[in-house]
Structures are given as structure tokens and as C-alpha cells.
Design goal:
Two copies of one chain form a homodimer.
Chain A: E1 3-6, H1 14-24, E2 28-32, H2 33-37, H3 43-53, E3 56-63, H4 71-91, E4 95-99, H5 110-125, E5 130-134, H6 145-155, E6 160-165, H7 166-170, E7 187-192, H8 202-208, H9 220-229, E8 236-238, H10 250-271, E9 287-294, H11 299-307, E10 311-316, E11 321-326, E12 329-334, E13 343-350, H12 354-363, E14 383-384, E15 390-394, E16 406-408, E17 426-434, H13 439-448, E18 453-462, E19 465-473, E20 480-485, E21 495-500, H14 504-513, H15 523-533, H16 537-545, E22 549-553, E23 556-562, E24 569-578, H17 588-596
GO biological process, one term (chains A, B): 3,4-dihydroxybenzoate biosynthetic process
Binding site for Mg(2+) (chains A, B): 429, 496, 572
Function (chains A, B): Catalyzes the conversion of 3-dehydroshikimate to protocatechuate (3,4-dihydroxybenzoate), a common intermediate of quinate and shikimate degradation pathways.
Chain lengths: 597, 597
């Protein structure tokens, strides 16, 4: 499937955008009139550059406010159009996007509008140009793709077709299934954009908040299925107006954009059992294999894990790497690092076929990570997330494979099976944090490469602004990653791993005895807990004495506590009682404030 | 009039917020439950701190999701409430905000809801606490202040009243005039917030986009008039949820907030011809007296002004300051500066009474600026805008006063009257730029201190993101300040002064002859101009040869060009033909792109 992108999605000059599009592997571009207008390069130079870069100019856009006017302005609009047709010939573009009149339309008469579109098409024919007519969601009289198509049908010209834009159709809540009734060869162009579900005026939503496919709430797989079933065989093109992407680095945003189309084509083919455009199937995630913390001196982390009751699983036989575990939760401390302070650097997940998962990751543009593997060592297949966090897939039980590479662990309570005996603990969730310009790309990465789904985002008040929290999880919840978006001026929040356990009160008491001080919770919090939930006084006292936090939902309860932050990482211990399915979000402001004091 | 502010408006810890509120001159605070909850200080400590700082605790808030429920949850809600009443006694707060149930209400029966509010009030009475019941704009059954007041009337308790919040009322478009029918003593509290006119869901609008009075679109003067006419004599309190203010420095945001109330009280008193709470009247602005560019070496600017045809008006007799003028536009070059690169540092405006204007500025918290004035020199009254730009008021004709302090100017064309002869030039507008966290404060400053009004904001695409442009102007347009809001990651855009003139084509040609190169405009721009406006070929050629930009509206035409940027400043020459009233916004993308290349 051919891929294309509108130059308006990206930052910088037109030539920089074109270079970035080619590097990201796009086949073509939509050139935005304004992007050309502000360039010093002539249309011929842009054409030649595109040829050298192997980019076709799939569309020139937009031509606005043409139809639905009286005869006198129409004459001027035809004159305007002809100037642009001449420009397009210099540029070597043969399709122009004409969007429905949103500004100057006064005539709401389909017969007259169709006649006007016909005259435009006839004029364009003299230049061998095709007109792709699109219904803007906020068009004055034409704002539904079915209406635009009806007008195209009425005008009935060989060089007049329609352009479909997923945003304009799905944002209005229009049923996309009627697309299948449009002959594929009359769909001249397809623009794709995702978007978050927002309740705001559609123009602002469109101009500021569009997202790349896979990052928002639209069902683009179903949408694209309708378009392909109609017989459309042109490029899949991205038109994403987004305040953030307009500012981010053009090269990485283009790569990020390209990945979204690979994902969409794959998911659409998979949903329809088509052979083409398929990647390896995504591998269902079984559980978290391990979490890695790295830094060039991790003695403090060793001490904290021991205090929490983790069992030392030994030193790696050939690398400065140590293993700790509590039940099925395994934490690797890796001192092969140039970083001074500890950070959460990698996540291992278990799947059926690690190689297949790695191939899918590579096909989605996730860079492979070099990992030195000595003879006899277990081979892992890491790729890097956009922020550098490494993801490892493992398709073997850890006990028989990589855990054997660790030697000298505590034999008594650590039986070499990777379990530390009594407690049925596991990694409950891993909390990652991102800056404003990294967030959407992270969502797309975890969605497309790891197959995680987005849950509703939530804003949590912190002392330096609202922190947005969006959970991404595997279908059965075995792998859960809350992603935090930090306010622009706040320091980057620390990441953390939350270990699920039973008997958290005793675990906390034992950790205290071993000298661990937890994040100090204000007394006022417990007064509020009493008011909120009417907890029994002795239970409340116990929570307060141990700095434990508490939440309750209709389906269960949640008790948790936080360790101090070491470098850029801390741990959380959590116990879920009943079917509690959240992450203690009401307590997040307490944590954010306490971590700042 | 007493002033108050909700702690949720500000960033940081509760104690930091309280210190900032006291320093800004607030009389009291509304303490947000969550702010207390995340604090290590006990309620008694907060009470004692407030006493020392001279802050009354005017309100404890919010108590949510109380009324409109069945008996069993009501019992639990009363228990919850009683815990909070006990907390309030420790805190020394005697009024609690109860907002209408948005989450758990199931009973839409006024009689039952009134009965429930009555029971809550009776419980509160035992703690000497007053209940201020407020209709949230998104309350499940109660979302109109008239409905909330009706319920309060029905419940008829001596310690039950209503709380009015301008946002909840004006955002819903409810007519505030019925407020006058509420007895003043039953309005227990008044929360004020402005907001931009946005078409989005009211909950998100409220939680993210509220503004301080004077910064948005609400008519708060009329609103407050209704409340005061009703007989309300409690504090004017700010409750402004805004993503930016949650992140900005707590001390400066508190000062900024306090200024908004001073402005609002003054405007409301003025509108009603009340004696109290009045400041000096704002001084109508007559015109721009001068613009000052400062920097420690401004020879390049001298050269550019000479090339543009400005006349040298001489050196100041006692300071390293020079004067240039073109018609009525005067530019001061001030080398008393520690800055390396030239910047637009001050604006002088002419008014009837400079002293009165300065007193109003001081009363609004604008810091006075020290200016060395030697014997016999004209005394000016500068204050600093929030970003440090200095504003001078002058109530004398410049010719007889400060211009006389400049010596050795070009006598032939500069007759000492401040005019340079032939051309009727003047300062057309002054373009200032701000970072995201400075913008609202700048709007409030120019609105309150200079009496400028905001015009609609516009987003202009630049190569590094959208630049928001909002024009602030005096009633007759004699003083016009477009304020630009730069995208967060882009470098701070240069500021500029636009000088209006006639005969711009000849002026440009003469400047070219004198060796000035203008900002180079791409050829593609002229192809677009031809398409857009169908200009005559010879006129178009002339524009293109001289790098002139052009715009046209229904009322007139606009021709302009830009100089290169020197340090952080550049000049624009503009000619308005007919009644063109804009600023050439369609050409801004061309300028932004060209300035970046």
C-alpha cells in the first residue's frame, strides 16, 4: 500500500520536511499551498527535489471557498483556480483538493453547486488536473461526505472525484459504511487522522488535536476497511494538524507518522484476513518477565530491595548485573551503565515467540538494541521504545534459561526457580513518564509494538501542575503500563515499578523493622480517609502508622505504599483485594506532593 | 472590598501558597480540601499560620455529591460531612462550599433535596458552620443558580445560603440579573473567574481554561454589579482553574491574581458611579509618544533608521540616548543598557494626566521604574509591564518638552518640532511577544493599566508551531499592541515596531537606494497574490521587486515590508489604504518562515 503525508503535519521548511518524509519511507506527499508559498524554492525546484528523493506529489491542497456562490464571485474563483492549476503544472501535481465552502457560500442549491463543480473540473481538464472534492466537517452547506459524493455524481465529470478524510467523517459521527457505495476509482484521495474523543467545536478539534492513527479513539481499521472495500487503491495519506507535532523534530515525527500507517495497514489487513500489508501477528503478552534498573552504582537499590523482603538471586556470571525477586516479580540491577543515578531502563515481557515479536517491532520501525550475549547465554531480542527504554521479549520460562546465568544467590529462600517462596508476588504495573512532546509517540509504540490498549486518561493535580495519566494494558491486564505526562515546567517525574503482593501490612511492618522508611504520608490524609470511607479506627491507625495508602471502589480495595526515590526510580508495593481494578489515582496528589517536599 | 482567593489557583505547597497570598495583599483564602490533605501541617498549624499572615479562612471547599440521593447514601454523606465539620473547627473555617451533586445524584425531587440540605444545615449548626450551596454548571439535576437558590429558600435554615460562581453562571449563558432577587445576606460567598469564549464541554472549559477577571470574555463588571446590588458584602474571591497558573511561580501569580480584583472592583464601581473601591480614572490614550530600543551598541539601528528615511533628532544632552523620527513616529535609541543586543524596551504614550495614569498603574501593582532625571529635564512616570517593558506616560506635547533635551539633530529636515517634514508617519502598532506563562498577565496589564481592549485572537502557522496573535488596542485605535504568544519550544520571537506612512513604494525604493535590504519575500508568495487578488501585473512586479507584502479586505488595502532583525527587534513599514483595519495576518507565515531561514 502506498503511503503519503501532508507537509502540514511537520515542522520546519518545506525542503526539510521533504527530506524527512523520504527518510521515513513515505512514497509521496501532499503539498500544502502555504508551505510552498513561504519557500524560496521555485515549484520546479521542489518538483525536482521530490523526484530525486523518490517522493510523488500526490496532492496539492487546499483550494478553498470555491462553490456555492453567485456568478460574479464564481468567475473570480475560476480565475483563482486557473492560477493554481498553472502552479500545479510547474510543480508536477495532478490532483487538487477542493474542500467544501466554509467561508463564502451563499447558494444552497445542489444543482447549481454541481454545475459549478463541473465548470471547475472542465477548466482543470485543460491542465490534465483532477479535482478531489471533500466535505469539511464545518462546511457551510456541504459537511457530509455523502453530500459531497452526491454533488460529484451529479456533476459527472471524468476528472472530478471525491476526497475522504477520516476526521471530517468520524468527528461528525457520520456512518462510514456508505463509503462502500462510492466507486473506488471516484475516491481520488484518502486522508487519515485519528483524534481523542473531545467534546468541543469540530474546527478547533480538527486544527489542534488530531493524532496519528493508533493514538486516538477513532476506529480507523473499520474506516479503512470500508474505503478499501469500495475499491480505493490510492495512497493512505496522513493529514494531522496537531500543536505538538508542529513543533517536534521533523525527522523523528516523520518516522513516528510512518509507523502509524504501517500499524494501520497491518491491523486493517488482519481484521479482514487479507494477505497483503501484513506484519507478523502481535504476540499476546503473558506477563512481565523482569524489570531492569540501571545505573553505575546500585548498592542503595540492593539495600532497599532486601529491606522490602526481596530475595537475592545472585550475580550474573559474566556481567555486573544482579537479580532480586519477590514471588514472580524479578528486578535486574544492571551496573553496565554510564548514568550516575538509578533509572528504570528496561522491561522484559513474556510471549509465545520472541523472534516473531521482534520482527514485528522492527517492521514498525522500533530500533533494535545491541546486547552482548556470551556463549551459553540466553538470547533476548530487545528493541528501544522512543524514549530509549528497552523492551525485551522472552519466549522461555525464566527459570530454566536466563535465571541460570545468575550465581551465588540466597539458596535458602531462593530455590533457583526464580520464586522466593512464600509470597505470590508479581509485577503489578510499571509507571513510565514522558514529556509533552514524547507522549503520543510512546502511546503509539506501546499500542502498535506491544499490542497494549489505551484506557481513559485522567488528570491528577500535582504541586506543579496537572499530571496526565493514561494506562495502557494488555487484554487480560497481565501487563499494565500507566504513562504519565508531566507538566511542561515540572521536573521529569521519577518512574516506578509497582509490585503486587498479599499481606501488605505484614510486609510493610517487616520492611520497617529492616530499617526502610516509606514515603511519609500526611496525617491529614488519614482524617480524609476516615471521612471518605468510614474505616474502622484500628485499621486506620494501622494504615497511618505504616504510611499505607488506601482506596476503595465498588469492586474491591487497594492498599499501597511507596519507597523513597533513588535517582529517577522508586518502588511501590500494592495489594489488590477483591476485584479492584485501578491504580489508587485518588492518592496520586498525596504522592506527588510528598515527593516534592 | 475584601479579597480572597482559592488555594487551588496557585502552584506549590499550601504554606507557600498562603505566604504568597498574604504578600499579594489578599485578605483571605478559600482552602481547598485536597491542598490541606496533602500537607504535613495540621489544621491547627494552618490556622495559626493564617492568623499570623493576617489571612482569614473564608471558605473550606468543596464538599461534593451530597444531596439528591436515597436515604442510605444520605446517611453516609451526613457522616462524611460531620467529619469535615470537625476538621473545619480545627481549621477555624466557618463556611463550607457544598456544590450540587454531579456524580451520585439519583433523586430529582426538589422537596426531598431541600429537606436533605436542611438536614445538612442542622448538622452544621451544631458546629456553628454555614453551608454555601452552589449549582455546578454540570450538576446532575441542579446546574442553574436560580435552582440552587430555590432549594435554599425551600430548606429555609438560618445557616444555609448560596454560593455564586461567575463561571458556572456565565458559561451556561444564564442571565445573572436574577441574582438581584436573592437577599444579599443569603449569598454566603462569591467566586469570580473569567474565561475565554470557547465552544467545548463546560467541565473541561472550567477545569483547564478559567482566567483571572479582565483576561477573558465574560462581562464580570455587570455580573458583580448584580451581586452587589443584591446586597452581598462578603469577599470577592477568585477561583481560577488554569493549567498555566498551576505551574507558574506562586508569588507572581498571586500578585497577578490580586491585580485582577483591584481592576474588577474599580471598573464595577466606575460603571455604577460608586465612590468606594475607585482608582484614578484610566487615562484615554491619545497616541504613541515614542518607542525606545535599547542595547549597549546601537550603531546598526542608527544606520537602518537613516536608510528608512528617518531624520536624526540629535543626542540627548546628558545621557547616551539618541532620537530619530519619521513624521510623528519617534524612536529613541538608548545605550544605557547592559544588554548586548538591541531590544524594544519601552513605549511612551500620551495622555491627559501622566500623574493620574501613573497613580492608577501603581494602584494596580505595576512597579514604578527608576529613571534618572536631571535638572530642567522633563519628568516622565514610568512603570514596568510584567515582562519588564517600560511604559511612560506623557501629558505634554513632545515638541516643547523632552524633544528639547536632544541636541545636534539634522536641522534641515528636522525642525525641532519632532516632525521630519514631508511624510505624515506615525507609529501604527507595536508588536510584543510573550512566552506561554507570561501571556495572560500581559493581557491583564495592558487591559487594566493602559485601558486597552482585547480583540479576537488568531493562530498563525510558523515553521516551529502556531503563533497566537492577540491585538490589544485603544478605543480609537491610536495605540495598537498585537501580542504574540510563542510556541513553547520555539525561540522567543523578536518584537517590532510598525511605522505607518504614505507612499510606501517610494519610501521602499529610497531605502533600497540607501542600501537597506528588506526581509526577502519568496517569489511563490507573489504567484499566490496574483491568484488571490488578481492584481495588475505591473503593480505585482513592483511589489515583488521591492519585497513588499500586500493584503486586502472589504474595506481597504495594506502594503508593508520588514527590515532585517537586529538583535531582538526589527521594523515594519506599513501603509493603510482606505479603511483597512488589520495587520496583514495572512502574510505572517511568510514573515515567520523568512525570519527563520
Amino acid at each position: 500500500m502506498r503511503t503519503s503525508i501532508a507537509t502540514v503535519c511537520l515542522s520546519g521548511s518545506l525542503t526539510a520536511k521533504l527530506h524527512a518524509c523520504a527518510e521515513a519511507g513515505f512514497d509521496g506527499v501532499e503539498i500544502m499551498d502555504t508551505d510552498l508559498l513561504v519557500s524560496y524554492e521555485s515549484p520546479e525546484e521542489i518538483r525536482t527535489l521530490c523526484e530525486r528523493l523518490g517522493l510523488s506529489i500526490d496532492l496539492f491542497q487546499p483550494f478553498r471557498d470555491f462553490e456555492g456562490v453567485e456568478e460574479e464571485p464564481l468567475q473570480d474563483n475560476l480565475r483563482r483556480a486557473e492560477e493554481k492549476f498553472q502552479l500545479m503544472r510547474r510543480l508536477g501535481a495532478d490532483t487538487v483538493l477542493v474542500c467544501s465552502n466554509a467561508g463564502t457560500a451563499t447558494v444552497d442549491d445542489d444543482a447549481r453547486v454541481a454545475e459549478q463543480l463541473g465548470r471547475l473540473a472542465d477548466l482543470a481538464a485543460g491542465y490534465d488536473i483532477r479535482i478531489a472534492y471533500e466535505a469539511l466537517a464545518w462546511g457551510r452547506f456541504v459537511n457530509d461526505y455523502r453530500h459531497a459524493w452526491k454533488l460529484v455524481e451529479m456533476a459527472d465529470r471524468p476528472n472530478l472525484g471525491t476526497c475522504l478524510d477520516s476526521f471530517h467523517i468520524l468527528a461528525r459521527g457520520h456512518d462510514p459504511s456508505a463509503i462502500e457505495q462510492i466507486p473506488g476509482e471516484k475516491i481520488y484521495f484518502l486522508q487519515l487522522a485519528d483524534a481523542p474523543q473531545l467534546d468541543m467545536d469540530v474546527l478547533s478539534w480538527s486544527r489542534h488535536h488530531r493524532l496519528f492513527p493508533g493514538e486516538g479513539s477513532f476506529d480507523l481499521t473499520a474506516f479503512l476497511t470500508h474505503v478499501l472495500r469500495a475499491g480505493y487503491r490510492g495512497p493512505l495519506s496522513l493529514e494531522v494538524f496537531n500543536d505538538t507535532f508542529r513543533q517536534t523534530d521533523v525527522v523523528s515525527t516523520a518516522a513516528h507518522a510512518r509507523r502509524s500507517l504501517t500499524w494501520l495497514a497491518d491491523r486493517t489487513a488482519a481484521a479482514n484476513s487479507w494477505e497483503t500489508d501484513r506484519l507478523e501477528d502481535p504476540q499476546p503478552l503473558q506477563d512481565v518477565d523482569f524489570v531492569e534498573i540501571s545505573g553505575n552504582s546500585l548498592d542503595d537499590v540492593d539495600e532497599m530491595l532486601a529491606q522490602l523482603g526481596f530475595t537475592f538471586g545472585g550475580k550474573h556470571r559474566s556481567k555486573p548485573v544482579r537479580l532480586w525477586s519477590l514471588g514472580e516479580s524479578r528486578i535486574i540491577l544492571n551496573e553496565q551503565s554510564r548514568e550516575d543515578s538509578p533509572r528504570l531502563s528496561a522491561v522484559g515481557v513474556r510471549v509465545d515467540s520472541a523472534e516473531q515479536a521482534a520482527r514485528r517491532g522492527a517492521a514498525l520501525g522500533a530500533p533494535a538494541v545491541f546486547r552482548r550475549t556470551y556463549a551459553g547465554e540466553h538470547v533476548l531480542h530487545p528493541v528501544a521504545a522512543p524514549d530509549g527504554t528497552v523492551v525485551y521479549w522472552n519466549d522461555q520460562p525464566p527459570e530454566g534459561t536466563w535465571i541460570r546465568e545468575f550465581e551465588g544467590g540466597d539458596a535458602e529462600s531462593f530455590d533457583g526457580s526464580g520464586r522466593s517462596g512464600s509470597r505470590a508476588a508479581c509485577v503489578d504495573h510499571i509507571n513510565l513518564s514522558y514529556r509533552w512532546h514524547e507522549f503520543e509517540e510512546a502511546v503509539l509504540f506501546f499500542h502498535s509494538v506491544l499490542g497494549l490498549s489505551s484506557q481513559d486518561a485522567q488528570d491528577v493535580p500535582g504541586p506543579q501542575g496537572l499530571v496526565r495519566s493514561q494506562v495502557m494494558r494488555s487484554t487480560d491486564g497481565a501487563v499494565r503500563l500507566p504513562l504519565n505526562l508531566a507538566p511542561p515546567t515540572a521536573p521529569m517525574p521519577a518512574r516506578h515499578v509497582a509490585v503486587g503482593c498479599t499481606g501488605i501490612v505484614e510486609l510493610a511492618r517487616a520492611a520497617r523493622r529492616r530499617g526502610l522508611q516509606f514515603l511519609k504520608v500526611p496525617d491529614n490524609y488519614y482524617a480524609d480517609l476516615r471521612a471518605k470511607f468510614g474505616l474502622q479506627e484500628n485499621f486506620l491507625t494501622e494504615l497511618q502508622e505504616l504510611d499505607l495508602l488506601y482506596d476503595r471502589s465498588d469492586s474491591g480495595e487497594f492498599i499501597h505504599f511507596y519507597t523513597p526515590t533513588l535517582g529517577d526510580v522508586f518502588l511501590e508495593m500494592v495489594e489488590r483485594i477483591g476485584d479492584y481494578d485501578g491504580y489508587g489515582a485518588p492518592n496520586a496528589p498525596v504522592r506527588l506532593a510528598a515527593q516534592r517536599s
